[in-house]
Design the sequence.
């Protein structure tokens, strides 16, 4: 392929695959360097650094999956769904109820994972269908309120005492099937002490060769890598969907629903379908994150509306409408905004920047010394409450983004007008560039 | 209108909107069941009256806070998700002042400013420390107004004219920042705030002096809003702007000034609502306004978004529906009062998105 064709196709937005891949891989590598660096400064052993990187991979991957799903709703179809947490909860609970051990508490049906996951996604899609009905007749902000209320109804139902025997109530659901990484690496997935499988032998050997003997770290790392594969699958699926005729109608709806309708498209049916697909993917995200990833769900904490907003922030940072942007936004949110601040406290302490100032207990105790120009207690208090400050920062960032960069990093990029490479003909024996094809391209239908 | 007219309208409804018909029938059945329960003595009338009273008290809070939400929706054209935080900020600032006044000598100034004191150290109540309670209310309103104006200047003013969803997302950012700033300053513990107060029983319903205070203050404030809207030039301008902003501007209405007053009224009432709900419940936490927000939204939507009277009435209806649902929800099902309120809101949006006061803006 000549360089000319490459730049040409780049201009038409079809040769972005390479750049996009480079962007995503570059971001992951940069995050790895930062996190490994943090681990080293903190004096972590190799084991700890691997675990840090593993945790980062896990969170970036799960955020990316859900952010991609949300981008399908909001970025492609313009449907403002702020009930993401609810659909994630449906997916996670459905997986538990379908694939959990019948002997466990609360009992599941014991279906194998390869049935439980798609069925669970189906359940999430059905709940999505219920939510899509208002989407048809409501304005964007009404839809927002309906979806967030629906998510809260779902959460409060799971947490209620009335369904305690089925869902575990306020204590959460704790009977999930074994993580697929366990199944892959261990002969008995439920016991870390069991013999490794053939694959397991290789993976454990690999980890031991760099001095990590803990099977737990090896298994969790394998799971994180599996999640990256799922992200890739979802990404490719959504990219193809977005460039398909179906996806182009969605973008038309986003830009101007009336035009799409006047072109004879039944926009309502498209909206319902896309809502269901996105909800199924959100359900998948819920399963991989809360059910298989953490092993138990606590609906009082894990599915609060906050989580919806975190995912929104990820999509907004990346730019609504761009799948690559959603992945980048997920990485930046999960890595830089969510995980990194929790290590700042450790870092400052390990470098002893505050010279052992005792942390004040209350805000007043922290502010009072500022009058006498003693700033250390205030900084110590701020560090001790870095969790809260992190959310203040996230909120301020969100406002700043909406004021200054509403399109995010990669939002609203030039969209390809056709799913085939329009420039393909120029590299062949067809009419040279600059001259129109005499026959108007292909034969008329 | 003849009988056949009514009949054909009913038939049209059944054909065109079967869902609405089902909802109507279910509502009617619930009402008949309620009457049956009261008549046969299954439900103690004083118990029922208690539900209604509790619902009315909390509903007035929803209504009071909802006025601001409704006003910003109709005049600035966006759903303000930070409104719950205005409620919380008002509550904390108001109670900080109430504690400073009520607890002089009982606890040190720092802990009083942070609305923290040992249990029983400051027995703030309308009967024992009325001056502190009233000053706290004023402070709650003034500080919530100040907050609204500052946030409008910093966040929303540069975004005037942008579409509602951008503003909505920005308001979510504001909500995050405010909520966790409150947590940073005041801590994240839920704590008791008020002391006990006088109670009387009327017809089997226990009336608490704090609840009565809440009802009186809320009604007075609502009457004030009514007078402002109906008798002042500002009210007229607000109604005009809610109706059609461009037309209002062309007619010479100073839109920025109207927007400022919108925030002053909405913010002040949100602050008052937050302060009063703490007076009623006796506890305060950094995220209680956020938890109330969806119920306030439910109230506003029920009444018809944009309608101030709708917000008031919707608030009371949501509060009463939430509590009266306890007639049917017993045992573990009592966890479902909030989902009932949200469900009611979703139904209204599905079958009558314009709300009870449908289509009327602000007035």
Sequence:
């Amino acid at each position: 392929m000549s360089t000319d064709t490459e730049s040409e196709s780049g201009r038409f937005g079809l040769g972005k695959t390479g750049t996009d891949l480079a962007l995503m891989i570059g971001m992951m590598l940069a995050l790895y360097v930062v996190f490994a660096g943090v681990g080293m400064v903190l004096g972590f052993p190799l084991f700890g650094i691997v675990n840090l990187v593993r945790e980062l991979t896990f969170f970036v991957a799960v955020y990316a999956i859900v952010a991609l799903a949300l981008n399908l709703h909001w970025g492609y179809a313009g449907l403002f769904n702020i009930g993401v947490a609810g659909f994630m909860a449906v997916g996670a609970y459905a997986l538990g109820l379908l694939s959990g051990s019948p002997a466990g508490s609360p009992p599941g049906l014991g279906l194998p994972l390869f049935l439980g996951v798609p069925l669970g996604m189906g359940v999430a899609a059905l709940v999505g269908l219920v939510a899509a009905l208002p989407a048809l007749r409501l304005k964007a902000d009404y839809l927002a309120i309906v979806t967030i209320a629906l998510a809260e109804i779902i959460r409060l139902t799971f947490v209620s005492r009335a369904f305690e025997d089925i869902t575990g109530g306020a204590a959460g659901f704790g009977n999930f099937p074994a993580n697929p990484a366990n199944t892959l690496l261990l002969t008995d997935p439920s016991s870390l002490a069991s013999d490794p499988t053939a694959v397991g032998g290789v993976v454990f050997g690999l980890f031991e060769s760099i001095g990590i003997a803990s099977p737990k770290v090896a298994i969790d790392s394998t799971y994180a890598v599996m999640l990256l594969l799922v992200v890739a699958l979802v990404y490719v699926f959504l990219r193809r969907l977005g460039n398909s005729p179906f996806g182009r109608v969605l973008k038309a709806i986003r830009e101007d629903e009336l035009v799409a309708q006047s072109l004879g498209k039944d926009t309502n049916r498209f909206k319902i379908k896309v809502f269901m697909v996105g909800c199924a993917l959100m359900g998948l995200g819920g399963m991989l994150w809360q059910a298989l990833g953490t092993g138990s769900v606590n609906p009082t904490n894990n599915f609060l509306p906050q989580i919806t907003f975190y995912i929104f922030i990820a999509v907004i940072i990346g730019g609504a409408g761009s799948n690559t942007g959603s992945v980048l936004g997920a990485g930046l949110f999960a890595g830089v905004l969510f995980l990194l601040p929790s290590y700042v406290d450790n870092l400052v302490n390990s470098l002893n920047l505050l010279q052992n100032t005792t942390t004040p207990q209350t805000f007043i105790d922290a502010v009072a010394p500022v009058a006498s120009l003693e700033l250390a207690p205030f900084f110590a208090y701020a560090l001790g409450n870095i969790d809260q400050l992190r959310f203040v920062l996230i909120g301020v960032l969100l406002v700043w983004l909406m004021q200054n960069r509403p399109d995010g990093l990669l939002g609203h990029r030039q969209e390809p007008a056709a799913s085939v490479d329009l420039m393909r003909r120029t590299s062949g024996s067809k009419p040279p560039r600059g001259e129109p094809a005499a026959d108007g391209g292909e034969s008329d239908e | 209108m003849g009988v056949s007219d009514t009949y054909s309208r009913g038939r049209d409804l059944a054909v065109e909107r079967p869902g609405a018909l089902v909802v109507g029938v279910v509502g009617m059945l619930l009402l008949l069941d309620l009457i049956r329960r009261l008549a046969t003595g299954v439900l103690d009338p004083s118990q029922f009256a208690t539900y209604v009273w509790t619902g009315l008290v909390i509903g007035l809070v929803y209504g009071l806070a909802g006025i601001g939400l409704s006003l910003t929706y109709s005049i600035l054209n966006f759903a303000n998700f930070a409104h719950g935080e205005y409620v919380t900020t008002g509550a904390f600032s108001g109670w900080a002042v109430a504690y400073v006044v009520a607890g002089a000598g009982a606890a040190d100034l720092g802990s009083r400013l942070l609305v923290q004191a040992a249990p029983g150290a400051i027995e703030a109540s309308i009967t024992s420390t009325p001056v502190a309670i009233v000053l706290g209310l004023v402070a709650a309103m003034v500080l919530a107004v100040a907050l609204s104006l500052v946030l409008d200047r910093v966040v929303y003013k540069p975004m005037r004219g942008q579409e509602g969803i951008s503003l909505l997302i920005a308001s979510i950012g504001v909500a995050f920042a405010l909520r966790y700033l409150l947590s940073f300053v005041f801590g994240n513990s839920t704590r008791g705030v008020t002391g006990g107060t006088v109670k009387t029983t009327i017809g089997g319903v226990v009336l608490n002096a704090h609840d009565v205070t809440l009802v009186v203050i809320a009604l007075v404030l609502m009457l004030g809003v009514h007078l402002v809207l109906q008798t002042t030039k500002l009210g007229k301008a607000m109604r005009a702007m809610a109706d059609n902003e461009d037309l209002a501007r062309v007619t010479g209405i100073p839109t920025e000034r109207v927007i400022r007053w919108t925030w002053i009224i909405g913010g002040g009432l949100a602050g008052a609502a937050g302060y009063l709900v703490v007076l009623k419940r006796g506890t305060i936490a950094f995220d209680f306004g956020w938890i109330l927000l969806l119920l306030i939204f439910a109230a506003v939507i029920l009444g018809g978004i944009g309608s101030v009277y709708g917000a008031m009435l919707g608030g009371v209806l949501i509060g009463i529906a939430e509590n009266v649902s306890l007639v049917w929800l017993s045992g573990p099902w009592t966890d479902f009062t909030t989902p009932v309120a949200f469900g009611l809101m979703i139904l209204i949006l599905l079958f009558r998105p314009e709300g009870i006061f449908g289509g009327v803006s602000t007035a």
